Amino acid sequence: MTHPTAATAPRTDWSAAIRPRRIGHTIEVHDLIGSTNDRAWELLADEGGDGAVVLAEEQSAGRGRRGREWLSPPGVNLTLSAAVRPDLPARSAWQLGLATALATFGACREVAPGVGLGLKWPNDVVAGSGAKVAGLLLETIMLGDRLSGAVLGIGINVNWRPEEMPAEIADRATSLLALTGAEVDRVVLLGRLLDRLDAELLALESGRTPLPRYRSACITLGQEVSVELASTTVAGRAVDLDETGSLLLDTPAGRLTLPTGEVVALRGEPHA
Ligand code: BTN
Question: Quick check: CB of 122 below 6 Å from ligand 1?
């Protein structure tokens, strides 16, 4: 069976995902772009840039965390970035990552109910097997003690067929299609995601922390994990998150507090 490629598939009409809200009041769509995060930074400088969304059917230089490449074939997944000027103190920047992760997790659950999704600390949406469904790349700038701008980059594996995933990620990635056995409407998913991002940002700016909801969704807690840091790897039980979102890891040498910035990779023990 052959599947339509981006060149042969009809263009998706994304307009139903635009609503009169802050995040996604406009959606700029590209067939091909370098990275949606880079374009979102450009839009943030414009009037009306706060809340602007950039979506691409294909990225030629999609970025993952820690300098990795983000792989996503044209026309089947969601790759987008939201430009925001959050009204938040710089010390709350870590909450933006948790809030974006919760919005992505919630939207994926809405369109794929019953497939047992969870959040892998700090901000991956994963299936029960640990395979990755979505990843986030958050970039921020501070002005004094305020968070003056942020780009929330989100990649969701939506209708990517497992047999079409590159060998280097096939054992640790999955998609909503692979999990549910049915194609997911990307426009509906985008609309739900932007609704949720909008609500999460409002909650943050109103002083409500996402931490308790994040803790409930985080499947890393309670697991034996190995955590790769810049120059060493530590293993232990992930017991909790502290009040700044850092992971508390109980190791034979005692309890470690690991801020997201220090962690290169986190691997859970294989699930039964
Ligand atoms: C990760 O898990 O490593 C983060 C992946 C983030 C990928 C998204 S796709 C849209 C946006 N543009 C990028 O270049 N990266 C993010």
Answer: no
